[in-house]
């Protein structure tokens, strides 16, 4: 994987998310948790399914003398934390690592344990192709992601060339009687629309 302006983008995510002095869950152990604790005075819990990643963050935090960060082994699609445990939950470039059939659960678990807001930063097509040219992961459908978050609360979107940032503010008394399309369904729906458009255009051409 090629790192794309990593530290700069992570700092931008935290700035746009207005996370200063918050309790923060960092999904996917990495530099973001270090930056949040060091530069934004956050009390951070950094989680990952990889013990190696957690060891790396612990080592870096110790090297920098950072006290406000704790590392825990957790599955982001089945979190052990109680509802509203953290002021803010942040996912930076993690969702595309999650299997397609578990991405909806990932989003809802992040929302469940957040008290104020969820921040999800994910690659655009340009960013994804730069970061993962080998095709080992499936890119996140950003239209699906935004729609899923909007089903939960008010969403702010910040678009960039390589990465988009979505901030979902926690709403009270949200019900989910009409679940949004799953990501795979969204992709198929867009494909179907494109095929219909092509048929219509061919019909107009031949009957002109």
Describe this structure in words.
By secondary structure, the protein is of the alpha/beta class. It has one domain: Vaccinia Virus protein VP39 (Rossmann fold, 3-Layer(aba) Sandwich), CATH 3.40.50. The chain is 41% helix and 22% strand. It contains 7 helices and 7 strands. The protein has a 7-stranded mixed beta sheet with strand order 3-2-1-4-5-7-6, with helices on both faces. Helix 1 crosses helix 2 (31-39). Mean pLDDT is 86; it is low at 173-181 and 199-208.
Task: Give descriptors for this structure.
208 residues, alpha/beta, Rossmann fold, seven-stranded mixed β-sheet
CA radius of gyration is 19 Å
Structural class by SSE content: alpha/beta
- The CATH architecture classification is 3-Layer(aba) Sandwich
Largest sheet: 7 strands, mixed
Topology:
Layout (H helix, E strand, L loop, with lengths): L5 H12 L5 E5 L3 H9 L3 E6 L2 H14 L4 E5 L12 E7 L10 H11 E10 L1 H7 L10 H9 L3 E5 L4 E7 L13 H24 L2
Parallel strand pairs: 1-2, 1-4, 2-3, 4-5
Antiparallel strand pairs: 5-7, 6-7
Helix pairs in contact: 1-2
